[in-house]
Amino acid sequence: MEPDDTKLQFDDDGNLRHLLSLRDFDATLLTRLMDEAEAYLTAPGALPARNHSLAGRTVGNLFFEPSTRTRASFDLAGRRLGADVLNLDVNTSSRKKGESILDTIYTLEAMQVDIMVVRDASDGVPAYIARHVKDHVSVLNAGESDVSHPTQGLLDLLTMRQHNPDFGNLAVAIVGDIQHSRVAMSASEALRAMGVGELRLISPPALIPDASRFPGAVIVDNLADGLRDADVVMALRIQRERIGNLDGIPGIDEYFANYGISHESMKLAKPDAIVMHPGPMNRGIEIEGTLADGPRSVIAKQVTNGVAIRMAVLSRIGKMMSAQ
Amino acid sequence: MEPDDTKLQFDDDGNLRHLLSLRDFDATLLTRLMDEAEAYLTAPGALPARNHSLAGRTVGNLFFEPSTRTRASFDLAGRRLGADVLNLDVNTSSRKKGESILDTIYTLEAMQVDIMVVRDASDGVPAYIARHVKDHVSVLNAGESDVSHPTQGLLDLLTMRQHNPDFGNLAVAIVGDIQHSRVAMSASEALRAMGVGELRLISPPALIPDASRFPGAVIVDNLADGLRDADVVMALRIQRERIGNLDGIPGIDEYFANYGISHESMKLAKPDAIVMHPGPMNRGIEIEGTLADGPRSVIAKQVTNGVAIRMAVLSRIGKMMSAQ
Amino acid sequence: MEPDDTKLQFDDDGNLRHLLSLRDFDATLLTRLMDEAEAYLTAPGALPARNHSLAGRTVGNLFFEPSTRTRASFDLAGRRLGADVLNLDVNTSSRKKGESILDTIYTLEAMQVDIMVVRDASDGVPAYIARHVKDHVSVLNAGESDVSHPTQGLLDLLTMRQHNPDFGNLAVAIVGDIQHSRVAMSASEALRAMGVGELRLISPPALIPDASRFPGAVIVDNLADGLRDADVVMALRIQRERIGNLDGIPGIDEYFANYGISHESMKLAKPDAIVMHPGPMNRGIEIEGTLADGPRSVIAKQVTNGVAIRMAVLSRIGKMMSAQ
Questions:
Q1: Is A99 exposed, middle or buried (0-12, 13-18, 19+ CB in 10 A)?
Q2: Domains of chain A
Q3: Which residues of A touch C67 (CB under 8 A)?
Q4: B57 — contact with chain A (CB < 8 Å)?
Q5: What pLDDT, on the 0 to 100 scale, is given for residue C91?
Q6: Tell me, what's the ipTM?
């Protein structure tokens, strides 16, 4: 993201226009979005919340990287708000024909697809698109390279708030491949804005990120140091291919022994600490399967919150559009 | 399916909760489902039947094997009942990332996808999922390895009833690769429950199934013996790769000559006997093309009945859910 | 298309039943369709037009060739008219199982999919399907080999009319691989019916089409000759693989120099001439990127008109069906 992308995200009245990154979100806006998302939560088995905030609008899901969960989450969020959702598997069509991303966007824009949900493996693509769309079009970042995954950051924040709304007294530990994690980045930005008590980033030495990207965070390479008395422990997905290249971690067993979140390692955290994971999980690698399925785990809650957060964001965008 | 899966399919009040197999369906339930499906049939060219039994519900189509027809059939059935239908092509997304089936299910469950339609190449997957989902979630088997395809069994039963409702006087011949056919299994279970007069299973010697899987059926390897005076003749799809390995059947011409359902071989059946096929057909291999397109064929009817049967099943599930 | 396909397209009362080609459309019908499409245009940012012309109907999108834009355009057009739209990626399912096109069609027909939108790489497939479907089913050609792309022809015609409705005084230049272009064919048929002043087809010598396919058109191999004083300039997509085989055009730079539509080459056209392209574009090959994005370009308008034209066609088909 370029320095002036803040202006890009908000219109002159301060309304959210594009969702590119949480970097410039303040506690007030984050709190309001979490409150709005809470209103979309219903009991398991009850019908999901619905309204007509996006009736008549079209949402385009443009996933230039494969994804089931985030795409499905945006799809359901859009449909439950009354939108038409167009799912484009961009790998298998336009790109085969060599069409540029911008031309795909211009085409959708001309079809009156007014909300573009974009996932891309390259840094800067959502902002690049946002700078080029027409005034009435909104771009939502659904996962951008290693740098940003704002709706994930929002759902993680909401999940932590449900555990303990007093962020100032919260110690949050994020464990794994921090260097390549857009999840860690967006969560950190959101937590910083909420004035989190302590943010600890734990990763193998080879995957330790540039500290300047995570101001205020404590960065350590020792799991025990990072987990001690934590309130929230978030395990990150590790790409299996990366494991073989880590010093002293020849395989997945060693990764699990050193950085896996397990019943054993959770003993260091607070007794009521929660366990999070953005999914999809590598059970037995970064997280112990029975822990993920047990009472400390809020992983399913994260998914539920994800739909609610996306409904909150989409609904805001819809209201902003209707007010134009 | 494990012995105790009967309990899994029905709740304490005897309502259908999951549809895993027809093994434990009795004539009363089968008849009711057929009656309910009949109510969804409209004249060709007329608008298809619609109602709001599933309004607000979300159906997830999880096809771990490729399929056009069954997926489309469930998709249309769900939408015509007012549901949101989420089509997940699981090969190209989650499984690429190594996510387990259960984690995919837990994710969808957390997104309030309350009805999971599952097709899988492995024996036991639908029941395995049904044992793990929350109380308010239903699992519908849309094709399971070689063992079960219950909505296919129901639509086949309905199609036969439309020809002649007196099952006790019906001779049904199923022809082809019985050993690997979930279609034959589910049809046999349904027919047995209805007290079918005679069920004959005809297949090349190498593809003859274990007789214990088809109690009451007559199993033969000679087409003429099986077809004589049959009321219903159902040809099964044969995988071309299997043909070369059959004794005395070096190629598709020999397969057609020995086991193909043709105008010629149908002379052995009753004059008004109907011809069925679950699709997709290999014309000229297991069935003669002009026979499939001719007046004895009820193959298109089977497809129409398929949507109606799926609407009947989905609608029942929806009512059970609303009553909870 | 066979000679008697005209009868196929219209019913006994002259209503449009299938849309296979524009060859037999007269100025009256073309004008009405354009007028109906105009009624579906709304301001950018405003909600797209919607109605219930296809409520309860099911549209099947059968794309046997990959496509993003045309498929999305039909999908949105159908949904904005209230239809259920079933998107079938036929490459990855039925065809894997060796099912014939007709069996796929018969299956969809039996599921009460009453409007089939078909794209296929083979000449004659849409008409072949239209000859085999039941009386109440309509087939819309969404791109057929090198020979026909009627909704593209209609949207191109509408876009030209928006520039200047006086077709008799219009000089239209189409540039590129005319020989393999279904876009050029359908545009030519529509323009001829409207009594276009001049139609010029410009292509490299190796890609010059059989003149009998384009009666009344001026065919030239020199760009300057073709562009002089043109009112409308349409660049066609060129397949990169074709370029290397053209005499005197060893690469894309030479193609652009000789046949590219650029700010420079547009100086030959009328000062207010518009630039069109059916997409997806190869920027820098058949068209200069900044020209495509500049004020002379109506390329985005073409896309917008495409949805409107498809809504007009679908809505007509829906009315014809309801009247049956």
A1: buried
A2: 5-147+303-323 (3.40.50.1370), 150-298 (3.40.50.1370)
A3: 93
A4: yes
A5: 62
A6: 0.95
